[in-house]
Amino acid sequence: MPKEPEFIQCSQGKSFFKIIEDLWVDIKSPSVRSIHRLCSLMRKMGATSFIKEKLLPGDDAETDQELQSLKLKFGGHASFISVYKITFFKRPTYNYQQAIELNNEDFLSYAVIINANWQEIGNNVQKTVNCSYILRSVVALPTIKCPVCEHRIAKPNAYYHVYSEYYCCVYLGRSKGFKFFTVTGTFFSQQNGSTSVCAHAALKSMVNNMNSNTFITTAYINNMIGFNLEIDKELWPEFKDIENLLRNMGFFPIVYNFFDSPNQNYADHLHHMVESSFPSLLLFTTHKVLHVVSVNGHTINPDIWRPEAEVAYGERGDDPEDNYCSATRWVDNFIIHDDNFGMYLTLPVDSLSRITIPKKDRNFRAFSIVGLAPRMVLEPGNEIEARTYNLLKSMHQLLLPISNQHYWLKELYNGTSPWVFRTALITKDRYRVHLGYRQTNRHPDSYGNIFSDSTIETLTDDFDNYLWLCEVSVPDLYATNKAKIADFIHSCADNDDEKKRNNCKLIRLPGIALFLEPYLSQKINSYQISALAGTGITGHYPLFKVSRELNSLHG
């Protein structure tokens, strides 16, 4: 049973630096950056108190497992100096009675901190090593204080797509038991450099942030990959080891290697994965080795000059990507967990982009990404966007008779601004919820129109479970209104059937929807219109958002 917990105040005026010195033994190690980041987040998110538990052997299964691994690695010459669990709250909490009254909204984060000690032998010299690290942590999605009210609100232009619902608890003392909380947030883990490296930490964050019953530990990863802690000195997983591990767990990893294919833009592929709520790993080079981080979201800059300017000032060629703006061009940062520096950090997109040849310039560039899809996915998002561009361009003459009836359809083709495409893999149910199916509070279009349930059923009944959604907008609507003009729905191919790989199912435009059949004629880019339907939606419509009700694409 844990020792009696301590109730500690950490509001403004209480130094987190001094608090960290009490929790973290290896205070001079670079690993201390992760606990500083956690405390910085807690300051920003309004933490006023935390409960400190000292965990003993038998109190926590993963902690006991971690000690066994260290003993195996160092021939029994390993021990724990101390193990703490700290849980942060918004509301000041001085005692058990106040802790009982805490609710889910008061919970901000918890972290299990290990202070370990082991004996290393090198060059016939034995030395004692102290190591402090966060074994695991769950942190609620970040918020900031509203400038005009007392409420906490989401950070503007920050989008968290990979997260889950966690059940957390805090020990309140003997005879008092545990207090349980439900929190929406993300999982974080840190390597110790001996039984785990950054790949372990990133894999744990990746898998444990999924909305599934799967929870993996360092020992699980080592066992599945086949590492022998008594023999193996190098614990860095080979690339095929990561893929095989994920496949053996029943996942469908999507892998891109940017050293083998240096002309691919890593940000495009990563953005499509993140928008699809795929938990993702980003591998990049440092001056010594590869480093791995997990990616949970992105930020956008709605005032950025580059997207439109590159199309306007660039040379218009035959490549569709030269003629439209992918929504990726508004992404200025990816939101990552880096086990060396902490959680919810922003990685500027351009910091890992290089125009040089990888063989000549290997340092600090994107090496690979791995995304977890809910099913096999053969086509990357940029192929879906190129197909959408070709369809939209070829439809212009066909739509002229009705374009004058719908202002936003005419605006789409007026030629003064480039098309913007935003692409994600979603489910049929998610798309129906996006349109307002069986909801009392439906999003209206810019004229106040809403979809009826019967219209939504007509549009979606023929859909497969998984589909590519490519939203079409123009820069001012996308960046300012977070709105779109049209939806292009494409099948998600999971085999080499060419018919499925080139199948646009539906085009929803202002006022009308076109149902397509492939390969029947040359009317629209190898498509034939099989049916038309009115939608009642004649204005621009809000962009697709990750649904809190449908917690994850994998749920």
Explain what you see.
There is one protein chain. The chain has 555 residues and is of the alpha+beta class. The chain has a seven-stranded antiparallel sheet with strand order 1-2-3-4-5-10-9. Strands 8, 11, 12, 13, 15, 16 and 17 form a seven-stranded antiparallel sheet that branches. Strands 14-18-19-21-22-23-24 form a seven-stranded mixed sheet, sandwiched between helices. It is globular, with a radius of gyration of 26 Å. Residues 548-555 have low confidence and may be disordered.
* Quaternary form: single chain
How many β-strands, per DSSP?
25
> How many individual helices?
16
The mean pLDDT is 88
Uncertain runs with pLDDT below 50, 5 residues or more?
A: 548-555
Work out the helicity level. Answer: 25-40%
First-residue to last-residue Cα separation: 35 Å
Sheet with most strands: 7 strands, antiparallel
Structural class designation: alpha+beta
Q: What is the CA-based Rg, rounded?
A: 26 Å
How would you write the strand order of the largest sheet? 1-2-3-4-5-10-9
Shape: globular
User: What proportion strand?
Assistant: 25-35%
List the topology elements.
Blueprint: E1 6-9, H1 16-23, H2 32-44, E2 49-54, H3 61-73, E3 78-89, H4 96-100, E4 107-122, E5 125-140, E6 143-145, E7 152-154, E8 158-160, E9 164-171, E10 178-188, H5 198-208, H6 218-225, H7 239-248, E11 252-257, H8 266-275, E12 280-285, E13 290-300, H9 306-313, E14 325-326, E15 331-338, E16 342-348, E17 366-373, H10 381-394, H11 396-403, H12 407-412, E18 420-427, H13 428-435, H14 453-460, E19 466-473, H15 475-481, E20 483-484, E21 486-491, H16 498-501, E22 504-509, E23 512-518, E24 527-534, E25 541-542
Parallel strand pairs: 14-18
Antiparallel strand pairs: 1-2, 2-3, 3-4, 4-5, 5-10, 6-7, 8-13, 9-10, 11-17, 12-13, 12-17, 13-15, 15-16, 18-19, 19-21, 20-25, 21-22, 22-23, 23-24
